[in-house]
Design brief:
The complex is a heterodimer of chains A (about 325) and B (about 300). Chain A is built from 13 helices and 4 strands. By secondary structure, chain A is mainly alpha-helical. Chain A has a domain of about 210 residues. In chain A, α3 crosses α9, α4 packs across α5 and α4 packs antiparallel against α9. Chain A is globular, with a radius of gyration of 19 Å. Chain B is mainly alpha-helical and about 300 residues long. Chain B has a single domain, classed as ABC transporter involved in vitamin B12 uptake, BtuC. Chain B contains 11 helices and 4 strands; from the N terminus they run ββααααββααααααα. A two-stranded antiparallel sheet of chain B has the order 1-2. A two-stranded antiparallel sheet of chain B has the order 3-4. In chain B, β1 and β2 form a beta hairpin. The termini of chain B are far apart. Classes of the chains: A mainly alpha (about 325), B mainly alpha (about 300). Chains A and B meet through α5, α10 and α12 of A and α4, α9 and α11 of B.
Chain lengths: ~325, ~300
């Protein structure tokens, strides 16, 4: 999606937007530290899980230019594995989330290996089809609990001492996971590895001609993205104490696309802003008689037609123009 | 009782017929997708929603207006095509020249809107639609019992698929279409109205989906979500066949439908995923698809 993604401008401008980026990142951390004083912690935790999920997805679409339409497979797998580890194996919550990330990453290697054989629209269709296959497996596999899902997942004691059933303890745990994930993504995007990813996005044949093994880079990026999506899913299953088929449906894949598109593809804060908008909307609409999918679909259409850069992308664009 | 590999032949033929019927829908839908993709370079995610709309139009026409099946078979695709014209002219047109992924996202949003509205109005449960009196009942072929309507679905879809192939590959209009697919600027310079061709192509492609919807109404229940689950399978069919060839889309559709039917006989647990497994194998062995020409 080269048309919208934000590439580095002239040197001076870039420093400007980098300062701005650091400033807003620090602001976000402070905000998240203070927020649970005034806002329902479960809402904030849901927001962070979806923001992390979308940020992981954004690594592919925003920085490699690959639109995965099957990211729910990794999110859902992470949720199932973490829930199973917590409920049946009684493992430490952190280990449960790590296992969720590992499961997501492992599935990511398999799906990614097949999907990167094609580009563009085909890539999207392949990821969608393979995630639907994962959905059917989850529907039939014995350990996922079929239509019921895995219910009553215990949050457990972190390191055997911190009781995560206390809302603030759980909030702190999710906040640390969220910040870890976002920091990891920020480091990746701004590393030499991230530069090569952007080079592939901008002009793949040139990256190949420069001697980069493009397929390998794509697969690594896909795996990291899938692992972080799995981590987000794992955290989500502990927060809601539930892993269900909803986490793994194509509707969930569509939702993460929308969150990222709305917030701003290829921006660090876009997925967070997008998640804030979508999660808030869904919370409000849940109480009303208005069909949520219609509104989500309409937002999709409006985004694609009117502001393809997304909220954060438009703001950055305006700032760059002024600078 | 005769058996083949331990399965009674009657059950085998029964599943083969179901496979052939599923294949008919895969073929009609992937054909429409391929036609649209060739011209607009857009994967029409709304295809499943428009298929559902075709079925609902037939059901509404019968229950509210008393319009019978045969009239619906003509009118519903036209209604869907008209909606297609509106979609193309008001939204898709504005994405020309952008990354084709935006077309996918836009049509995905449209399908959510359409399906969401029908779910809001009619709920998730299916509505029954009985086949027309002329096609009710069945015949005993000696080796199996064939419900007449199911036989009709296979025949109708083969005829329509062949007609579409004929129009595109053997008529003057089809020649314009193929030329405009290769080089729109040049065809435009020859004085052919390319934007009109594009609109017609989209309308024609979605009309096929609407037609498939009417055919499907008496077989599956008419429900708002009937299209969205089908369309993902059709995407896999399209990846397997490759969208380069019209005939390829048709043949792959029937082939995978039959394969799915056979899986239901021999290993029912895998029948939901067999097409995705085939897709994975094709990607490993022949990434461009069975009939694809590469990218």
């Amino acid at each position: 999606m080269t048309a919208t993604t934000v590439s580095a401008g002239p040197a001076g401008v870039r420093t400007n937007s980098e300062t701005w980026g650091r400033f807003s990142a620090a602001g976000l951390v402070v905000l998240l530290l203070v927020a649970p004083l005034g806002i329902y912690p479960v809402f904030l935790m849901k927001l962070m899980c979806f923001a992390l999920f979308a940020a992981a997805f954004n690594l592919l679409i925003g920085y490699v230019g690959l639109l995965s339409f099957g990211h729910a497979a990794f999110f859902g797998t992470g949720a199932y594995v973490s829930a199973h580890a917590a409920k049946v194996w009684h493992l430490d919550p952190l280990l449960c989330v790590v296992l969720g990330a590992v499961a997501g990453g492992f599935l990511g290697v398999l799906v990614g290996y097949l999907a990167i054989k094609r580009k563009g629209i085909y890539f999207s269709m392949i990821t969608l089809a393979l995630s639907q296959m994962v959905f059917f497996i989850a529907l039939q596999a014995p350990f996922t609990g079929g239509e019921d899902g895995i219910q009553g997942v215990p949050r457990g004691m972190l390191f055997g001492v911190l009781d995560l059933n206390k809302p603030m303890a759980m909030y702190g745990f999710v906040l640390v996971l969220f910040l870890f994930g976002m920091f990891a993504l920020w480091r990746i995007v701004n590393s030499p590895f991230g530069q090569i990813l952007k080079a592939i996005r901008e002009h793949e044949p040139r990256a190949i001609s420069l001697g980069y093994d493009v397929q390998r880079y794509k697969l690594i990026a896909f795996t990291i993205s899938a692992a972080l999506a799995g981590m987000a899913g794992g955290a989500k299953s502990l927060v809601f104490q539930l892993a269900s088929l909803t986490d793994i449906t194509w509707q969930m894949s569509g939702e993460v696309v929308l969150i990222t598109l709305l917030g701003g593809i290829g921006t660090m804060l876009g997925p967070v802003v997008g998640a804030l908008i979508v999660v808030t909307l869904e919370n409000y609409l849940a109480a009303m008689d208005f069909p949520v999918t219609v509104l989500i679909g309409a937002i999709f259409v409006a985004c694609v037609l009117l502001f393809r850069r997304g909220v954060v992308g438009e703001i950055e664009h305006a700032l760059r123009k002024r600078a | 009782m005769t058996t083949i590999f331990g399965v009674p032949t009657a059950a085998l033929y029964g599943q083969l017929l179901i496979g052939l019927i599923n294949g008919s829908f895969y073929a009609l839908l992937s054909l429409g997708l391929a036609v649209i993709f060739g011209m607009l370079h857009v994967i029409n995610f709304a295809h499943g929603a428009l298929y559902m709309l075709g079925a609902f139009t037939a059901w509404l026409a019968l229950t509210k207006l008393g319009i019978n099946y045969w009239a619906a078979l003509v009118l519903a695709p036209i209604a869907v095509a008209l909606l297609g014209v509106v979609i193309e002219r008001t939204t898709l047109k504005r994405l020309a020249g952008l990354d084709p992924l935006y077309g996918l996202l836009l049509t995905f949003g449209l399908s959510l809107v359409i399906e969401g509205m029908f779910r809001h109005w009619y709920g998730s449960s299916g509505q029954p639609y009985s086949p027309p009196p002329q096609l009710q009942g069945g015949v005993n072929l000696g080796f199996m019992f064939l419900p007449i309507y199911r036989g009709w679905v296979v025949v109708a879809s083969v005829v329509v698929c062949f007609a579409t192939w004929f129009i595109i590959e053997r008529t003057r209009l089809g020649a314009y279409l193929r030329a405009a697919t290769e080089n729109p600027a040049l065809v435009q310079a020859f004085g052919i109205n390319v934007p009109l061709l594009v609109t017609l192509t989209y309308a024609g492609g979605v009309a096929l989906a609407g037609f498939a919807g009417v055919l499907a109404a008496p077989i599956y229940q008419v429900s708002p979500l009937m299209g969205s689950n089908l369309i993902i399978v059709v995407f896999a069919v399209v990846v397997v066949g490759g969208m380069g060839s019209i005939m390829g889309a048709i043949v792959t559709g029937y082939m995978l439908g039959v394969l799915e039917g056979l899986t239901k006989v021999y290993y029912p647990q895998a029948s939901a995923i067999v097409i995705f497994v085939v897709m994975a194998i094709v990607l490993l062995v022949r990434p461009a698809g069975l009939f694809g020409r590469g990218e």
